[in-house]
Amino acid sequence: MPSGRFPPRPVGSDAVRRQRVSSSLIASVGYDASASVLEIELVDGAVYRYFAVPQRQFEALLTAPSIGRFFNQVIKPRYPCARLDP
C-alpha cells in the first residue's frame, strides 16, 4: 500500500464499534485494539479514522476532563487520519 494511503472503511462486522460520549464536539468514539485504529464521529456527522493510535491514548481520551480538547491537542495533530465516506 502506498505511503499516506489507508484501507477503505470496513463494512459489516469489520466496522469499528463506537460509543456515545459527552462532548460538544464529538458524538461517539471507537477503538480497534488489534489495528490501533481510533474512530471519531463529530457532532456534525463527519467520521474520521486515526491510525497507529496506542490504546493508552484512547483510554486517556475517554477519561479526559474535556474529550474535545484532548482530541484537538493530542490526537488530531499527532496521528494520520482519513475521513470516511458517508
Properties at a glance:
86 residues, alpha+beta, five-stranded antiparallel β-sheet, globular
Detailed description of the structure:
- The chain has 86 residues and is an alpha+beta fold.
- 24% of the residues lie in helices and 27% in strands.
- The protein has one domain (16-83).
- Helix 1 (55-63) runs antiparallel to helix 2.
- The radius of gyration is 12 Å and the shape is globular.
- The two termini are 23 Å apart.
- Mean pLDDT is 87; it is low at 6-13.
Task: Offer a concise description of the structure.
The chain is of the alpha+beta class and 86 residues long.
Helices and strands, with pairings:
Blueprint (H helix, E strand, L loop, with lengths): L17 E3 L5 E7 L4 E6 L4 E4 L4 H9 L3 H12 L2 E3 L3
Antiparallel strand pairs: 1-2, 2-3, 3-4, 4-5
Helix pairs in contact: 1-2
User: How far apart are the first and last residues' alpha carbons, in Å?
Assistant: 23 Å
Mean pLDDT: 87
Tally of DSSP β-strands: 5
Order of helices and strands: EEEEHHE
Helix/strand/pairing category: alpha+beta
- Percent strand: 25-35%
Strand order in the largest sheet: 1-2-3-4-5
Summed up, the helix count is 2
Main pleated-sheet profile: 5 strands, antiparallel
Tally of separate domains:
1
Q: What value does the Rg take, in angstroms?
A: 12 Å
Taken from the alpha-carbon principal axes, the silhouette is globular
Helix content: 10-25%
User: Can you tell me the residue ranges where pLDDT is under 50 for at least 5 consecutive residues?
Assistant: 6-13
